[in-house]
Amino acid sequence: MKDKIFKGLLFFSAIFILILTAGIIYALVARSLESFQEYGIWGFVNNSEWDPRSATEEYGALSFVVGTLYTSFFALLICIPFSFAVALFTGEYFKGRKVASVVSSIVDLLAGIPSIVFGLWGFYSIRPLAIELGVNAQGFGIFTSSVVLAVMIIPYASSLSSEYLRMVPKNLKEGAYSLGATRLEVITNVSLPMASSGIVSSFILALGRALGETMAVTMLIGNTNNIPSGLRDTGNTMASVIANQFGEADGLKLSSLIAIGLLLFIITAIINLIAKLIMNKLTNV
Amino acid sequence: MNDQVSNIKRRNRTDKTAYVLIIVFAILAMVPLFLILGEVIIKGLPNFNLRLFTEVTPSSMDAMLAKANGESIPGGILNGITGTLLIVGLAIILTIPIGLFIGIYLADHQSSKFAKTVSFLTDLMQGIPSIVVGIIAYAWIVKPFGGYSALAGSVALTIMMLPMVVRSTEETLKMLPVSLKEAGLALGSSYTNVVFKVLIPSGFGGIFTGILLAISRVMGETAPLMLTALGASIVNWNIMEPTSAIPLLIWDFYNDPNLVELVWSSSLLLLIVIFILNWLAKLIARKWKI
At what angle do helices B130-137 and A2-39 cross, to 10 degrees? Predict the structure, then answer.
């Protein structure tokens, strides 16, 4: 009897996840409806106008979608050489040695630093650097946010990649060594091809992280409601526009901001799903 | 012959270059951590005093007057500390039982279609950006109850913690040998007893580590709290009232030129707490092995 109740409890807890997810999707969709009804889904997504003034009120998400993709992909690009180096350092060159665990713990600590502290660091340290480099006069913008974002996602990309590199069977590598291959040749011809899908999926997951990052980007991107014209320009991401304008919003503006939240939710879900699919394929082989 | 020798030399040179490059880039990847820690410690220590823990945030006006008189900022972040305790504490209470139960269920039903769906949805939840989590809690709690509240903040943090706790519980229990459970059942123990007296105690290290890591992850969350708990300049223990938290205060200070100096000492405190939680998690994971 007791067992039946307990097993039922476990089952209902599992059902609770279904309810939560349904509630999440319902909350986002229901509160986005006003905006979608006004502009149509595609009309909302494909409109770069964001004008909260009551006389000419008009809301579209395109500037922020572009801003988000811009910052995230640039951040991913910057993070690749560093994450890759850390992954090879900990998962291949110094695998199993003390120095590898020290390096990976240090890089992992980066993941523990709150977004807002990254924002402060970006504001007080990276922004002056951007001004010095002549990016733009204020130092805010896509460039500065991407650099900080890149640092934030290094641990996510490197720790997973390193794990996949470590899983490459030893005898394959030893075979290549015995044929006279150098270490680099073993890496490029054996380890990387073996671990490639794992590494790709870990970078996709890191991209997913970058897409949703809020505070650091909000503090650094400059918060302008137009499509950024380049790396030097200011802009807004989907997350940063919500963080910036949610507080004073109501009516159609609030609904439009929530609609942007729904879009962000869908985009990150798709990105994470792709990463998961690649990973599952890997484990099934 | 000469050709072959030079070929081998070239290959060895490329190999060396790659080796050096990888070490250099790996070291460069660690530099930001030290830069950030250095900046927070150097700028935070001067204001890191007892006042930080015993007094609430001063008004912008008082801070400006004190600064004009050459005094230090008259106040601390007590309201943020108590707020973080309240919001995170409530989130822990909401998360742990459900998270454990779902984790146990998933570890026990690995191949059923329903469990796979639940597992998929847990992954989906884990990927929700923090700001979107804020919107969800806003729609669920702030709107229906007619105001910003600590409870709304806790619900937001619960949405973030739950998938982490489910995953770590599930992974830990999966690592336990099946014979452990079977032995318990064979001795005539009920399933409930096996779970509570055998499985959970055996996997305690892993489960507890997962919980600690989840707490340290949400401790520094700012975005979801901006949309839910909002902030308050007084110490508040009522879960239905707006409440501050350390990261929320850092955001307020950052936006207020009169209080901006407190940014660093508050960040220092936040980092200390987060790193202690991380360190504890590692310690426990090493001690219990599983």
Answer: 100
Q: Which CATH class is domain A61-284?
A: mainly alpha
Enclosing H/E stretch for B133: helix B130-137
Q: Which residues contact B183 (CB under 8 A, 6 or more apart)?
A: none
pLDDT digits over A67-116, tens only?
999 999 999 999 999 999 999 999 999 988 999 999 999 999 999 999 99
Q: Are A144 and A126 in contact (CB under 8 A)?
A: yes
Domains delineated in chain B = 2-68 (no CATH), 79-288 (1.10.3720.10)
- The pTM score is 0.95
Across the range A137-163, mean pLDDT stands at: 95
Local structure of residue B28 (DSSP, 8 states): H
Residue A145 Cα, gap to closest chain B Cα (Å)? 14
DSSP single-letter state for residue A55: G
Residues in chain A closer than 8 A to B195 (CB atoms) = 6
Instruction: Report which residue type is found at A223.
Output: N
pLDDT of residue A1 exceeding 80: no
Domain boundaries, chain A: 2-55, 61-284
B114/A contact by beta carbon, under 8 A: yes
Which pLDDT does position B72 carry in this prediction?
Answer: 81
- B87 pLDDT more than 80: yes
> Is the predicted pLDDT of residue A284 greater than 60, yes or no?
no
Closest partner CB to A269 (pick from B12, B127, B191): B127
What is residue A92's three-state secondary structure?
helix
Interface probe for A, chosen from B105, B125, B135 (most Cβ of A below 10 Å), is B135
